[in-house]
Amino acid sequence: MLLHHPVELLGVLLAGLLVPLKQAAEVESALQRRVAMVGSSVLLAGPHNITLIHSVQWEHLNGTASHTILQYERHNLTIHMPYIARAHLHASNGSLLLEDLQESDSGIYRVTVNRAERESLTILLDVLKPVSHPQLWSRGLVAKASGEVLCEVAEGRADTFTWKKDGQMLPPDRSYHLSGSLSVLHLRVAKKSDCGSYSCNASNGISWQETSLNVTVAGLSPPLQDVLRISVVAVVFAAVSGWGIIFPVCQSEKLRIRGELWRWLSAYTCGLVCISSILAGTAGILWMREEGPSIAVIVPEIFLLYVIVITFLVAFTVTFQPTKLIQLKSTAAQRTMGYAAPGGVLLVVVTSSFHMKNIHQRHEEGCTAFMDVTTLVVSTAAVLALPILAIFLCYHTTQGWLQEHDSSCADKERSFEMSLPISMDPDLTS
Ligand SMILES: *[C@@H]1O[C@H](CO)[C@@H](O)[C@H](O)[C@H]1NC(C)=O
Ligand SMILES: *[C@@H]1O[C@H](CO)[C@@H](O)[C@H](O)[C@H]1NC(C)=O
Ligand SMILES: *[C@@H]1O[C@H](CO)[C@@H](O)[C@H](O)[C@H]1NC(C)=O
Ligand SMILES: *[C@@H]1O[C@H](CO)[C@@H](O)[C@H](O)[C@H]1NC(C)=O
Ligand SMILES: *[C@@H]1O[C@H](CO)[C@@H](O)[C@H](O)[C@H]1NC(C)=O
Ligand SMILES: *[C@@H]1O[C@H](CO)[C@@H](O)[C@H](O)[C@H]1NC(C)=O
After folding, report:
1. Does 104 sit in the ligand 3 pocket, CB within 6 Å?
2. Can you tell me the distance from the alpha carbon of 41 to that of 127, in angstroms, rounded to the nearest whole number?
3. How far apart are CA 420 and CA 422, in angstroms?
4. Are the C-beta atoms of 308 and 281 separated by less than 8 Å?
5. Ligand 2 cavity residues, CB under 6 Å
6. Which of 48, 49, 93 has most ligand 2 atoms within 8 Å of CB, for mutation?
7. Is the dihedral of CA 22, 27, 29, 30 positive or negative?
8. What is the DSSP string of 114-165?
9. Under DSSP, is residue 62 helix (H, G, I), strand (E, B) or coil?
10. Residues 217-256: pLDDT tens digits?
């Protein structure tokens, strides 16, 4: 064909474009969609306005391949191999009954009646398994962090997932479909208002299932829970050592605990202050690792380090080289040691209270129950108080015993009669 004019060329081009479009539209309108469950039967109807049927051919098109299911020609019916037992033709109207459906039966079915292309019909069949009950679970639901709620069906392919929170439909853009079996609901910055009952409805053409989950947002991440535990233990250490410091002060001058027991009490108390300062310092470092450095944490950290060094030296000296302490004459050194333990106790209580207050505030941003630390407090206090109780018990029995018989044990105790310049001896530190 010779083209003499550009307009003609355009016309030919347009016709070439329009013909496939028209065909596509025809296929589209003729395509019926059917869904059926695995194991069930489906009746695929032939073209409905044909009065006289001489021949019928049914084909299954999956992908690009085409398989003939059956052919009917002048009362001669041939059913092809994989369909022999489960395909039945109603010759009067050209309908095909397909039994015992499998997922591989999904695809396009085409029926051609009387060998005429325009009397053909295409049907899209989806063979689906019913969806199983969805599993719902959540991931990383900590206040201020991003978290997600996941919904997964183990069996069957879901076309649609819908989410509800406390019975209210959530907008579809809150969640996304990862596959036919998984939907993820995003909580960008998890907060208290995200707590509640979530339900996920997974459905396909033949079935739906819904599951609910009570979702809680934790206020504290695991590291912050550790900070809380460490701070609580630090306060218990400080409280027990505070008791060890105050108790002898409250005793009358004459009955005041002295000697070897006094030495052990001092060493133990200083050791406790040292450990509680280490714990409070650790809590501060962990807090900063989670929340970033802040001057309100760094300054107490420096003082805590100072307390750790002093109390460690005192505890070590009192335990292993008690004679060194007697030689220590400098009042400045004595004062430093005298104030280190009570000062340390105070510092630990203040810094730990600060951490606990911050942690409590953070906890309020979630909706879980506050961490129960009662067992931790009681067990730590019981273990730490035991040596002090033992020292006091020993002191009181030796006191009572002393009053009755002035024995060698008393001499032995008196031989160590020296008031160590530790915190709780106001006579020497003044
Ligand atoms: C075709 O005929 C069969 C039996 O004669 C009937 O059960 C079926 O409903 C018919 N199909 C349609 C589409 O009319
Ligand atoms: C059947 O109906 C369609 C439209 O619904 C028409 O195009 C077709 O010609 C009809 N066939 C016969 C045999 O009447
Ligand atoms: C097409 O269907 C046949 C059975 O009719 C099956 O064996 C084959 O795997 C299917 N192919 C595709 C691409 O689905
Ligand atoms: C009917 O099918 C048989 C074989 O199954 C064949 O021999 C015969 O020619 C067919 N008849 C017609 C009219 O096609
Ligand atoms: C779940 O979804 C299906 C399909 O969208 C719907 O028919 C059904 O009512 C829904 N179930 C509930 C409990 O909302
Ligand atoms: C969610 O919590 C409510 C009470 O707050 C309770 O009645 C309901 O059974 C819980 N649902 C699930 C799935 O645990």
Report:
1. yes
2. 10
3. 5
4. yes
5. 49-50
6. 49
7. positive
8. TT-GGGEEEEEEEEEPPPPPPEEEEE--BTTS-EEEEEE-SSS--SEEEEEE
9. strand
10. 998 988 999 999 999 999 999 999 998 888 777 776 666 6
Distances (CA, A) of 47 to 41, 51, 99, 272, 391: 19, 10, 20, 92, 102
**176: enclosing H helix or E strand:** strand 175-179
CA distance 126 to 135: 24
Q: How far is the CA of 55 from the centre of ligand 4 (A)?
A: 13
Distance 174 CA to ligand 6 centre (A): 23
Amino acid letter for position 203: S
Q: How many CB atoms lie within 10 A of CB 243?
A: 16
Dihedrals phi, psi of 57, to nearest 5 degrees: -135, 125
Q: Is the CB of 137 under 6 A from ligand 6?
A: no
User: Can you tell me the distance from the alpha carbon of 356 to that of 354, in angstroms, rounded to the nearest whole number?
Assistant: 5
Q: For residue 175, which amino acid is it?
A: S
Query: Looking at the CA of 50, which ligand is closest?
Result: 2
Is the CB–ligand 6 distance for residue 214 below 6 Å? yes
Q: Which ligand ends up closest to the CA of 136?
A: 6
Residue position matching structure tokens 């041939």: 78
DSSP codes joined into one string, 352-410: HHHHHHHHHHHHTTS-SPPP--HHHHHHHHHHHHHHHHHHHHHHHHHHHHHHH---HHH
407/397 Cα distance (integer angstroms)? 13
CA distance 320 to 155: 71
- pLDDT digits over 310-366, tens only? 999 888 888 888 777 667 667 777 777 778 888 999 999 999 999 999 999 999 998
Strands 87-90 and 32-37: unpaired
- State the amino acid at position 142 in one-letter form: V
Rounded to an integer, what distance in angstroms lies between the CA atom of residue 315 and that of residue 365? Answer: 42
Length of the chain: 430
Q: Which two tokens stand for residue 159?
A: 């076309």
Q: Residues 152-177: pLDDT tens digits?
A: 999 888 889 999 999 999 988 888 88
Please tell me if the CB atom of residue 212 comes closer than 6 angstroms to any atom of ligand 6.
Answer: yes
Pocket of ligand 1 (CB under 6 A): 45, 90, 92-93, 95
